[in-house]
Amino acid sequence: MAAVTSEMGVVFAQAGGRALKCDIYRPADAAGVLPAAIFFHGGGWRRGSKDSLKPRAQELAAHGFVVVAAEYRLTDEARWPAHIEDAKAALRWLRANAAARRVNPDQIALVGFSAGAQLALLAAGTPGVAAFDGGAGTVESERANAVVGFFPPTRFQGGTERVGGDQPATPASSLGADITPEEMREASPLTHLSAQYPPTMLLHGTADEVVPPATSIEMFGLLRGLGVPSDLRLYTGLRHEFVRMDGVLQVAMADVALFLTRTMVDPKRFDLTQAELFGVPATPGGASR
Q1: How many whole angstroms from its chain centre is CA 141?
Q2: What's residue 20's pLDDT?
Q3: What's this model's pTM, rounded to 2 decimal places?
């Protein structure tokens, strides 16, 4: 893996009477402006830490990205929608500070894992939605240029029993005991899909016992129906949080780097005709033979 530098504990916002912090990873030998990705950790919205993202962030940074591993308030500290407000604050902060951080403001992706994937996917579909902006009142600065979700919860239900691919909205596993049906609906990334949704990559293990792979399969189908550039990766036999496995992590992050390069960083590089792909020379007029 290429050398990566890190800057830990950078304050990106104030919320709930305290500072919100992030860790920033950057290729050690990179010069100039780079594409970026903001990472959000998992943990069922009630536990977890940005510290757990270090190996994943280092892997993607080694592929030429600035990676910002951001924290967000958990359910024991703040009621929903504080979590998504903090995720959006990280995006606004990075775009506002793009020049100082040597980041391309038009190449900022969101990447989340489990509960963090719900936040990434929801943020991608709700730029400028007042209910989730924490009073910031911004629109353009909240737009993600691409989004990646690892084993994402995408729908919520009341009660304690899972129906289909829905995530039960119980205090033990989800957004809190007092969340309302309307809040559950609005917290679902599926509620906010449109043809303007950014390019999306979903990665899921077929043996996931925490978040069924049906969640990613359903979302992929809906995005494709809307014409949104989308990729789906199903890892046969792998369970929840499969990126904790050495070897799998490297392959998955290399695939994420390729997806972000294809859709966000340099799409023209991959826009080849069949003739160009197979090395058939073009005629003088530019058309392939």
Answers
A1: 16
A2: 98
A3: 0.91
